Amino acid sequence: RDKSGDYYFKLKSANNKLAALQVVDLPTDGETLTIYPVEFNAETTEYTVSLPCTAQTLPDVVVNPQSVYATANITVADSKATITVNAENGDSKDYVVTFVKEKSNIATLKSLVVEGYDIAFDAATLRYTVTLPVGTETLPAISYEKLSEAQTVVINKGVETTLQVIAEDGETTQTYTIVNHFYFAFYTYLFKLNMIYNTLYSH
Question: Which of 15, 73, 159, 197 has the greatest number of beta carbons closer than 10 A?
Answer without folding.
Answer: 15
